[in-house]
From TrEMBL:
Record function comment: This protein is involved in the repair of mismatches in DNA. It is required for dam-dependent methyl-directed DNA mismatch repair. May act as a 'molecular matchmaker', a protein that promotes the formation of a stable complex between two or more DNA-binding proteins in an ATP-dependent manner without itself being part of a final effector complex.
Domain of life: Bacteria
UniProt name for this protein: DNA mismatch repair protein MutL
Name of the gene: mutL
Transmembrane segments: none
Family that this chain belongs to: Belongs to the DNA mismatch repair MutL/HexB family.
Native species: Anaerocolumna cellulosilytica
Length: 323
């Protein structure tokens, strides 16, 4: 049974940034409005995630680390309209299979919290303790029992860089959540969570980007988009600045990238890519998020409509810009 968990773990958890992504997504799904992520040695020796969300009920504790156990999907039909970031119920089991996990959690309805320890998928202890509402996950010694996977990791600085990029995208995708990211004791990112996207963009990307922003809004049927794009001078040789979010989920989509890049094409040099922070709200029945293990890809049922919406919204903003 543990072997199966480890094999499956490889699909979801390939590096420390994947642990951070899954745990922060759980914190977001739990309704948190403040999330702190702390790492040491690129997340290899320590990852600590603290949230102020719903917490986990004591009676649910035996289940949350079981594979395919989720509180977010109850029927096959639910899978057709996923609104949470998680839904596979395999993140916690995968993480616990390849690390030493300590969990402290408390729901608002109880007086005491729970401290739970699990290592290599085996439960170590459960005790009651005093703690604030919310959940803290501590993941130690990632891949301690899977040396082959550990060997595949890059240097701590590189792994920390992946986590830092991820934290920036998470902060921008959820402007209403205050994010703090601490690397080896140093605060690297701190957003207010004041729900003002422009403030968050300033916070994350600084003045250079923020002073060249164009606000965008667009609507087509039930699908809405808002956000900011930058004037073409803020271009890059890679797509790191070209970000878009579907219902708060950071994804990669050839269709959306193409719509963005076609809109910019008359204004930008070949092989240069713009800054975008495009936030799309779309009916959950029009998308399929159950395509990719890391949930990075989405299938669209109204792809052509979406393409036109993005292309024309950006094109109009770029044509009307002050020069
Ligand atoms: P999924 O997110 O797909 O449901 P996970 O393995 O990531 O699966 O998490 C399992 C379950 O543990 C979740 O469905 C949720 O009920 C609970 N859980 C995990 N993290 C948290 C958290 N930070 N706050 C509250 N509940 C959580
Ligand atoms: Mg999850």
């Amino acid at each position: 049974e543990h072997t199966i968990n480890q094999i499956a773990a490889g699909e979801v958890i390939e590096r420390p940034a994947a642990v951070v992504k899954e745990l922060v997504e759980n914190s977001i799904d739990a309704g948190s409005n403040a999330i702190t992520v702390e790492i040491k040695e690129g997340g290899m020796s320590l990852i600590r995630i603290t949230d102020n969300g719903s917490g986990i009920d004591e009676e649910d504790m035996p289940y949350v680390f079981l594979r395919h156990s989720t509180s977010k999907i109850r029927t096959a039909e639910d899978l057709l309209k996923v609104s949470s970031l998680g839904f596979r119920g395999e993140a916690l089991s995968s993480i616990a299979a390849v690390s030493q996990v300590e969990l402290v959690t408390k729901t608002s309805g109880t007086f005491t919290g729970i401290r739970y320890q699990i290592a290599g998928g085996d439960e170590k202890s459960l005790e009651h303790i005093g703690c604030p509402d919310g959940t803290t996950f501590i993941v130690r010694n990632l891949f301690y029992n899977t040396p082959a996977r550990r060997k595949f990791l890059k240097s701590p600085v590189t792994e920390a860089g992946y986590i830092s990029d991820l934290m920036e995208r998470l902060a921008v995708s959820h402007p209403g959540i205050a994010f703090k990211f601490i690397n080896n004791g140093q605060i690297k990112l701190h957003t207010s969570g004041n729900n003002n996207l422009k403030d968050i963009i300033y916070n994350v990307y600084g003045r250079d980007v923020t002073s060249h922003l164009l606000e965008i809004t667009g609507k087509s049927g039930q699908t809405e988009m808002v956000g900011y794009i930058a004037k073409p001078i803020v271009s890059r040789g890679n797509r790191n600045y070209e970000n878009y979010f579907i219902n708060g989920r950071y994804i990669k989509s050839p269709l959306i990238s193409k719509a963005i890049e076609e809109a910019y094409r008359p204004y930008i040099m070949l092989h240069r890519y713009p800054f975008t922070s495009v936030h799309i709200r779309i009916d959950t029945q029009l998308i399929d998020v159950n395509v990719h293990p890391a949930k990075l890809e989405i299938r669209f049922k109204n792809g052509e409509e979406l393409y036109q919406l993005i292309y024309h919204t950006l094109k109009n903003a770029l044509e009307g810009r002050e020069l």
